[in-house]
From TrEMBL:
InterPro entries: Polyketide_cyclase/dehydratase, START-like_dom_sf. It comes from Nocardioides kongjuensis. It comes from the Bacteria. This is SRPBCC family protein.
Amino acid sequence: MPVVQSRIRVPVPPEVAFAVSQTTGAVRRRWDVFIREQHFLDGASEPATGVRTFTRQRLGPSMVSRYVSYAPPRNVGMVMERGPWFFDRLGAGWRFEADGEGTVATWKYSFTCRPRFLAPVAERIGRVLLGREIRARIEGFARGCGDPVVLAAVRPGGQT
């Protein structure tokens, strides 16, 4: 299964970095270059294991994903339940490690493509495209970790 990942150091503690990574709506769009729309499904109002989300990418494709792990402030994992036809499977995860007065955040995607006979070529292309995407997204995340509006939203009482 192909894997792409990107890592960055941000000048906030793991609790804040984790909270920024889990923002939704307008707050999320301030930093995430990928998202045009994202919200919880099935009446959920916050992330947790088993919660499903709808995400529409800025270029149009959408997916429904489900949290398979949610362990603040260390890690979170999600899997795609429904999405673009060319993904057979897609999973994503964040890991946060304290680093002095900041945090090292790692964002990873793992995926397989279909149809199987095209997978060798599609997965090579996917590594390149998803690698570029995840690097842009984690750089946006780092900007979000310095954005006063995003930081205010993740503080207790803020609106994520």
